[in-house]
Write a structure and sequence with these properties.
Blueprint (H helix, E strand, L loop, with lengths): L1 H24 L15 E4 L2 E4 L4 E7 L2 E6 L5 H10 L7 E2 L4 E4 L5 H38 L5 H34 L2
Antiparallel strand pairs: 1-2, 3-4, 4-6, 5-6
Helix pairs in contact: 1-3, 1-4, 3-4
Length: 185
């Protein structure tokens, strides 16, 4: 029972770290990365699809993204979706391919993005702590119902704390990597 609770907690903490990693990948740094447009949804033939299901996205240069749709009819829809998105980029369409030039970030914009990263990292830490709280409640319930001894519960709490510390360390590391990427000129 304790093992099940700890395994569930680890799985949920891992998912929180993965969600943070996806959120941080969507924050535009100074470099062009195909993951930058992963969250863009395109209205195409009456349905909404992620951009990466309609086109090949690549970064041939450090400040350029190219989007080549598999169906040329989708060019206009993809261009509109990019303009509507929160990327703040202006697509260039030549009839075959869409180019997104990633302008260099100003110092002020970098600092704003670092603040956003700090906020998202703190949300990730809170999520990991919430998982810990839920697992602690489960362990205490098991001990109250006398399914486990007090010593076993105490050992499980120690293991849970080590697990929490490890995942919070992962969350912090992700934030530091993103911050370093943003501040890189």
């Amino acid at each position: 029972m304790i093992e099940d609770a700890l395994a569930d907690a680890e799985k949920r903490m891992q998912k929180a770290a993965e969600a943070l990693q996806r959120d941080l990948a969507a924050i535009r740094g100074g470099r062009a990365r195909p993951s930058l447009v992963d969250h863009v949804k395109v209205e195409y033939y009456g349905s909404t699809l992620p951009l990466n299901q309609l086109a090949t996205v690549s970064a041939p240069e450090a400040r350029l993204l190219t989007i080549q749709p598999w169906d040329r009819q989708a060019l206009g829809a993809i261009e509109k979706a990019i303009q509507k998105s929160d990327l703040g980029l202006n697509p260039s369409n030549d009839g075959h391919i869409i180019r997104l030039v990633i302008p260099p970030l100003t110092e002020e914009r970098r600092k704003d993005l670092v603040r956003v990263v700090h906020k998202k990292v703190e949300e990730g830490r809170v999520e990991v702590r919430n998982v810990r709280r839920d697992c602690l409640e489960e362990l205490r319930r098991l001990q109250r119902e006398e399914h486990v001894s007090e010593d076993d519960e105490r050992r499980a709490q120690d293991r849970l704390q080590k697990l929490t510390d490890r995942h919070i360390g992962d969350v912090d590391r992700l934030g530091q990597e993103k911050e370093a990427e943003l501040m890189e000129v």
